[in-house]
Amino acid sequence: TVINMYNQKYHGLVDVVQWSFSTLRLVDFTRTRYFQVEALHDCLIRYGDQSEWLGTLDLDEYVVPLPPYETIVDYIHENFGRLIIGSINLWSQFFCNKNASAYTADENDTNHLTIERFTLRAPNRLKRGRQKYLYRPRFVQYLSIHRQVIGLSKEQPSEKHIMLAHYVFMTRLRAMSGCGLNETVEDISVRNRFANKVKDAIETLMNKHYSNRSIL
Would 203 be classed as within a structural domain? Predict the structure, then answer.
């Protein structure tokens, strides 16, 4: 995989934790999640004491900072950096479709990710259990994927400043808030193309890092 390739080339850049409960003959209570809660708590135990924020996201989810913020870090530091809170609660906004004959040139450009092509989304954030959290490890005692945390209060960020952009389910399509069942954007190659973008970004970052070391 892309992650393993860079983990071998730049040791310590990424920690890869393999999950294989099949050898122990264990079965998750919710089969479709494959021990996600356990993975989240493992992350808290491993990295909680050295991290200001923790989060868990799927490959079909993107935390997107909105203007005037250019990065997630900028937004968090300015709005929550000094607050004693347990988490930031992000509600999913799912991509919706529209008449293909009305697509703009950018929306027809399949060389870009769906998140880059389409700006039309569900008019309302989905508030039926599909939220995710950015946690402050020092102030929480229990983590969950889509539920409230046990710890200090959670904050609701402004949807004008940050959003959780979410692709529809590719294998189990369902009606989302503001979207009809057949009004969805499908992009079955998103994982490979997103991985390529991550690969290019890491390569640029590492080249800059080693270039700076050479100058020093």
Answer: no
Task: Say how many Å lie between the first and final Cα of the chain, rounded.
Answer: 33
Report which residue type is found at 139.
F
> Does residue 8 fall inside a structural domain?
no
Q: Report d(CA 100, CA 185) in Å as an integer.
A: 10
3-state secondary structure 3-54: HHHHHHHCCCCCCCCCCCCHHHCCCCCCCCCCCHHHHHHHHHHHHHHHCCCE
Specify the number of domains making up the chain: 1
pTM reported for the whole predicted model? 0.69
Establish if 170 belongs to a structural domain: yes
Taking only the tens place, the pLDDT of each residue in 165-195 is: 877 665 666 666 667 666 677 776 766 777 7
Q: Give the per-residue pLDDT at 94.
A: 78
In a domain, 56, yes or no: yes
Task: Give the domain extent around 123.
Answer: 35-193
